[in-house]
User: Fold this.
Amino acid sequence: MKSKITFSLLLSTVFATTSFAQKGIPGIDYRACSAAERNNEIIDNDPSKKALMEEQHQFALDWTEKYYGKTSVNPATGKKTILYTIPVVWHVIHNDGPENISKATIENEIAQLNLDYQKLNPDWVNAHAAFLGIVADVQIQFRLARIDPNGNCTEGITRTKNTITYAMDETAKTIRPSWNTSTRTYLNIWQGSAIASGAGGYAFYPGVVPNNREGVVLIAGQLGNTVTHEVGHWLNLMHCWGNTNDPGVATNCSSDDGVADTPNTIGQTGCSSTAASCSSIDNVQNYMEYNFCDLMFTEGQKARMHAALNSPSDIGKRKTLVSALNLTNTGVADPYDQNPICQLISVDFTYNKTKICEGESITFADFGTYNGTPTQWDWTFTGGTPNVSNLQNPTVTYNTAGVYGASYAPGNAAGFATPISKSNIITVSSINAQYTLPFAESMESTTTFNNDWKIETQSGAGWTNSTTAAYTGSRSLRINNVSNSLNDITEAISPSYNLSSMTNPKINWKAAYAKKTTGGNDILTLYSSIDCGATWQIVTIKSASSMASAPATNVSFTPSGTSQWKDNTVTLSAGLASQSNVRFKFHFKSNGGNNMYIDDINIFGDVPTSVNEIKTVHNFSIYPNPTKESAVVTFNLAADVKTLRITLKDVLGKEVSNIVNGQFFSSGKYNMSIDQGKKLAPGLYFVEFNADNKIKVEKLIVK
Assistant:
């Protein structure tokens, strides 16, 4: 029997995220995990936790002495005997990326756990001769839960969309809460894209954390034997070199893992069969090592895991979890339903855009159900084409400006779920700008402001049309920022403007702002969009110092007169200057500063030297319009045109077809086909008619 050890460090698995931790894959960079410090703090700051760990360790030693060597084969049947069944819930936390792994992948991981914990992995026979006789059938099986905490049918999988997936830590357990309750207990597995510390997974010893944090945290890019390793930690196994995350250290020879039949080792990250780091052959193929050839648990580790499941004080709820009552309550008792068909609940859906221009499309998808798998989909889209769909991920085109909603009901053999409806989720803007240059916004008309401007506030006090102060008139845009918290964000989105009617366009506004005497670096960022607000590009950024127009004060700031306003002018880029549909967004991020005011927004430029008028063209038209495939352009020329160009463009200005490419046309009547013999995709297009550099544009809608 090895010497008794002291628990004072966190057990947490450490694997890098560069590849799957599968058997035989070399080149993975294993490194320490930041969760070690977190668990050290838990134990160091709470003597009762340390005492509990000591008690659990002593019980494991006693259990090993009493039950070591118990057979895993039923002598009556000759078949393997399962002593413990563990109900599992797999929480997928994703952001619609590859980390949103499939049901089949999860089921395969559970199957692999069962192979490894029941000595059914075919490679166990390759164990080193020194350990071949003690390769253990741990006699534990894992089953995805079939009853959720509310008593509903489930497949044992949840899906939650949240950006925490990119930096998983204990916070993930609050975003997708544990399923452990007073009446039902599960092995909770939280899986995302990456762990904040850079690790590939971690788990706590029994009883170190509260019941609602018990479980395993993993990443999608590294499953396989990582899951086996982490569950081993959850069942009270240490690394073979002891209770640290640092293999390969010579001093590890003086510590151990509390298991008699795993020789002391410095900890191996390679697979040398002759490794003997502490005067004996290392068990490099053990699942609790850091390497690529793991294929076994030992009989001593088996006994230690069984002890964790039989603690008389039920540390970490492990004994409750494998009780007959809990197996029944979680739906994993025999007879076990391998493929449950559950009535779908927790319905929700997502979409890849919220703002588009006329003629553009949006793709919808289910992301809400966790208790079952949809096999049927019932969608309804107001204002969209198609208006209804039974596809899993329909793509819908919106040809008319407006604000629209959608409803969705997934179904399977158990029936359809209660539909979920969302109103005003999609904003479709006209491809034609609301205003041409020059433009002036004084903020004086509340009706115009309410119709033209959109305020989007993530948190805190947002932009308002206020009478508190103004540069001219009586109204301005205002943020009562003095009461805001750090990182509160509010945005004011403008109507659309045609910047192509003038050269060298500029935007100008008056702003009043005071810093606090105690600091606070608030940020104002001006953005532009040429695709109706779907994407934004930075025009300019103003820090608190550059915005300040009045002395710093901790009192709620109101400008005392025009002298406390600052003039701001930005010359817009050449890329924006040619655009015919541009929006602007004033994005304000609070950092503990003072109030902000904006007034007299002007957009202007230079008048072109010539005006594009087509006096020689009459009766220009397109038919049929709308069309299902192709269309005809018809026009009369009252005089000869030296250079005629007719092009078909999509809503983003990209040329789709060149109908006439800079040719001479004499006066007369003409009819020309658009994409004859081709089929245009549904959407909104524009036919641009350029006669000797004088331009006319008409819409074409393809259904």
